[in-house]
């Protein structure tokens, strides 16, 4: 299995649900180790840049508005197959379609306020981690359970 990194964002609804700890616990339990972590209030231009791939979508303005509506937690997660593993633990974009036991099924409010972001490929993970973190902000440590 390949050791990968992926970008995770705990979205405003996660913080407003008081669920930071519960969501991070699920990620860690899945073998996704936070190697960078920071709270942040996204600006409109940061959110527009981050979601630029979606700029022609009908939900783009609403998504940018939502992502800037409150603070988020930014994380780089590391682990075997971290990109796909994170997507699996997150569940489908629409919480109504997310599998039982996934983060979105259990915490998300709507298809927009869906609790977590996760990179969708290793290439995008590199771009997204670099969007928010300097290389020197990523730490190294071992987890032994
Ligand atoms: P993903 O987060 O599961 O990768 P994307 O299709 O990349 O889903 O969409 C990015 C984000 O845009 C979603 O997480 C969600 O917050 C929002 N979004 C996606 N589809 C819709 C929609 O149909 N209506 C409103 N918001 C949406
Ligand atoms: Mg996506």
Please give a handful of descriptors for the protein shown.
about 140 residues, alpha+beta, 4 strands, globular, binds inosine-5'-diphosphate, binds magnesium ion
Overall morphology: globular
- SS-based class: alpha+beta
Global Rg? 14 Å
Mean pLDDT: 98
Give me the count of strands.
4
Count of helix runs: 7
Strand content: 15-25%
Helix content: 25-40%
Q: Strand count, sense and closure of the main sheet?
A: 4 strands, antiparallel
> Which stretches are poorly predicted, pLDDT < 50 over at least 5 residues?
none
Head-to-tail CA distance between termini:
20 Å
What is shown here, in short?
This protein is α+β, with helices and mostly antiparallel strands and 145 residues long. It has 7 helices and 4 strands. The model has no long low-confidence stretch (mean pLDDT 98).
Describe the structure.
The chain is an alpha+beta fold. The chain has seven helices and four strands, in the order E-H-H-E-H-H-E-H-H-E-H. The chain has helices at 12-16, 20-29, 44-50, 60-67, 82-90, 103-107, 122-132, and strands spanning 3-10, 33-40, 72-80, 116-118. The protein has a four-stranded antiparallel β-sheet with strand order 2-3-1-4. The radius of gyration is 14 Å and the shape is globular. The protein starts with a strand and ends in a 13-residue tail after the last helix. The site of inosine-5'-diphosphate has 9 residues, from loops.
Task: Please specify the SSE layout and strand pairing.
Elements: E1 3-10, H1 12-16, H2 20-29, E2 33-40, H3 44-50, H4 60-67, E3 72-80, H5 82-90, H6 103-107, E4 116-118, H7 122-132
This protein binds inosine-5'-diphosphate (IDP) and magnesium ion (MG).
